[in-house]
Amino acid sequence: MASLCLNLGCSQPSNPDQANVCQNCGTPLLLDQRYRCRVVLGQGGFGRTYLATDETTDPPLRCVVKQVFPEARLLQGTLPTKHSGFGELQRRFHLEAEQLASLGRHPQIPELLAVVDSDQGQFLIQEYIAGPNLDQLAQRQSFDEASVRRVLEDILPVLEFVHHRQVIHRDVKPANILAPQEPAPLVLVDFGASKYIYEQALLEKTGTVIGSAGYVAPEQALGKAVFASDIFSLGVTCLHLLTGQHPFDLYSVSDDAWAWKPFVQTPVSKRFARVLDRMVKRRLKERYQTASEVLADLRWSVPARVSSSQSPTSSPQFPPPQKAARATDVWLLKATAGLSGTIENAVTMGKGGRRMATASSDGTIRLWDCTTGELLQNFGKSLGMLGLGHRGETTAVVFGTTDQVLYSSGEDGQLIHWDLENFSRHRRLDLPIWTATALLMLPNCPLLAIGTAEGHIHLWDCQAQQPSLQLTHHQDRINTLAFNPQRQSLISGSNDQTLRIWTIPAGRLSQTLTAPTAPITALACHPQDGRIISGDGQGQVQVWNLQRPDTGLLLTKLAHPVTAAAISPNGQWLAIGLEDGALPIWDLRHQTRLDGLRHDWAVRDLTFTPDSRMLVSTGADETIRFFCLFDREPGSERAREKV
Fold first, then answer.
1. Interval 575-603: pLDDT, tens
2. Is 468 part of a structural domain of the chain?
3. Which long-range contacts (CB under 8 A, 24 or more apart) does 77-86 make?
């Protein structure tokens, strides 16, 4: 293996493996008496990158040496006008090195190992990441929507992390995204062109045109890069991966628009295409401004189905988007929606995860945008020609067979069908009940289960718009309902201290669990293995196995009554709401518990989004709280959002 000379003017830089000085120009070959450069990995306007070995380790450790071109530093155009000269150049180099050292603490950015500022020049020594880059992968295999989605889900949180530290990468492209061996996520490399915005005025200042042709945003081409410029470059990267074409071939000059869709190698869903189109908008005001905005819309876009005829090895070899959470995963409060004088008694999530609805103490039903927290619609007494609406507190709300229909119940005994597309189709359900206490839309059949204060369960046929069955075995108030997908059964919990299992759609009572010792106040059913988890008025959280119904496994005994429970759709997280406002979360896979999340007063209800990365809860403190899954950085107390 050769030993390369670092003298940029050397005409014959290749030397024998163990040579100490260059045979052509006499320049020492060991940088800082320890790093030996072996192979040129790349070269750009800012410097040259080498694969090197650290000769002070046994065996020599591979690393990356980045040689900074002095003239490139002078051309960056980021020096304050009141400074000039070599001294300021050195100061800026070390300032940027400190910033890179901070960025390198992120697990998807190479760690900065050392900084060398010597007679030979300025050098950054970074961690070596083994694996091909996406440009190399694209040359030998095709990318479909699912593969590109993984790229976005891995890289957008990295950009969010970088931008939060006031750094613009300015050279996001396939060649600068590495795909290490599974299960490691993608890695963003080459911050040699990055710009540290240490003064806000620099965002308005014209600088040097930096970036790779075809991937650079229009404003960056004018020397005015902003954080959204990286969003543009990542979007163009996705277009390149989906089509296998260089960006120059995907832009129609005559139409002044991107024309990438005819070149896609596999079909792309319309929602996902809209996300990509907005990422690559040439007008800055029309483009996503932050990585978190892209992630929010990406969450609600529908992934394309993979054809059964597609080879299992046809997708790029890097980790799938739904990775098992590590021990560093935590849940943190993301946002709080304050409600003046109103308590949301119940919350339900739409199947798409974008919209949610709440049942309020003021008698209204509210429809929310779960992504932004924006109130979309109020359904109350004032709606409808005859004043259709609840005349007291609403107790429960649930989406119907589609996200275009809501069902609500209230203390006034009314059950109301709300049509979100046509208000004229709002109507009351004709059921003889006093108070409905729990609602559950049963999957795979058009049945709405309605629990009541009298201890009855009514099944309403949503398709025929008429009552179906009445289940009457409970002796007291029904507090909670759940569904077991493995057994196609309905589970009910009551003040009579029993759990009852009903076959669906027949409605036959198949099992009664009499072991509970307190009123059952919350139920959740594991989506994969069918385990039933209950919470009761004595603070007990128990797990029930229907093969051994006489004894429940006590998961924990809490100091306050349980008011709500939910299991994430991926089966990993169990959230419990308590009367004192606490909201502990269990990682069921790793058998760990997270405390610290809470409301000021009692938790009323809670639910997960379909992607299992957001938990929404309502409380008696007149708030709705949004908790998101974060990944704590190794070795630090900071965390970054996973979504």
1. 999 999 999 999 887 778 888 899 999 99
2. no
3. 77/205, 77/206, 77/207, 77/208, 77/223, 78/195, 78/196, 78/202, 78/205, 78/207, 80/199
In tens, the pLDDT along 113-128 reads 889 988 778 898 999 9
Domain final residue pick, 255, 274, 300: 300
Burial of 509 (0-12, 13-18, 19+ CB in 10 A): middle
| 171 labelled catalytic | yes
SS3 state at 81? coil
Mutual orientation of helices 270-279 and 291-300 as an angle, nearest 10°? 170
Q: Are residues 158 and 286 in the same domain?
A: yes
Q: Are 575 and 593 in contact (CB under 8 A)?
A: no
Same domain, 184 and 288: yes
State how far Cα 580 lies from the chain centre. 29
Specify the residue for token string 């003064």.
199
The tokens describing 530, both together, are 């069918």
Phi, psi (5° rounding) for residue 309?
A: -85, -5
Domain end (from 76, 111, 127): 127
CB burial of residue 213 (10 Å; 0-12, 13-18, 19+): exposed
CB 65, CB 122: distance < 8 Å: no
- Residue 101: domain span: 3-127
Query: Residues 6 or more apart from 343 whose CB is under 8 A from it?
Result: 360, 361, 604, 618, 619, 620, 622
Give the integer Cα–Cα distance in Å for 121 and 114. Answer: 14
Beta bridge partners of 522: 535
Query: Which CATH number is 144's domain given?
Result: 1.10.510.10
Q: Which of 242, 254, 319 is nearest to 280 (CA)?
A: 242
Position 293 in a domain? yes
Which residues lie closer than 8 Å to 305 by C-beta, 6 or more apart?
Answer: none
Which of 326, 281, 295 shows the shortest CA–CA distance to 159?
295
Sign of CA dihedral 320, 322, 325, 330: positive
User: Are residue 61 and residue 162 in the same domain, yes or no?
Assistant: no
pLDDT at 625: 93
Give pTM, 2 decimals. Answer: 0.52
Residue 582 lies in a domain: no
Q: What tokens does 281 get?
A: 């908008």
188 and 88 together in one domain: no
196-205 — which CB contacts under 8 Å span 24+ positions? 196/78, 196/95, 196/96, 196/99, 196/166, 196/167, 197/166, 197/167, 197/168, 198/95, 198/166, 199/80, 202/78, 205/77, 205/78
Residues 123 and 138 placed together within one structural domain of the fold: no
Residues facing residue 449 across a β-bridge: 440, 459
Q: Strands, E, within 350-423: which ranges?
A: 355-360, 365-369, 375-379, 394-399, 405-410, 415-419
What secondary structure does DSSP assign to 471-519, as a single string?
E---SS-EEEEEEETTTTEEEEEETTS-EEEEETTT--EEEEE----S-
112 and 86, same domain (yes or no): yes
Distances (CA, A) of 520 to 20, 346, 487, 568: 77, 17, 21, 20
Residues 225 and 93 occupy one common structural domain: no
* Catalytic, out of 144, 171, 403, 621: 171
CA–centroid distance for 394 within its chain? 32
Query: How sure is the predictor about 276, in pLDDT bands with cuts at 50, 70 and 90?
Result: very high
The reply to whether 220 falls in a domain is: yes
Element (H or E) spanning 427, and its range? strand 427-428
Domains held by the chain: number: 2
248 and 214 inside one domain: yes
Please work out, in degrees rounded to the nearest 5, the angle formed at the alpha carbon of residue 214 by the alpha carbons of 211 and 220: 40
User: What tokens appear for 68 in the block?
Assistant: 């900074």
pLDDT in tens, 401-453: 888 899 999 888 889 999 888 877 888 888 888 889 999 999 878 899 999 99
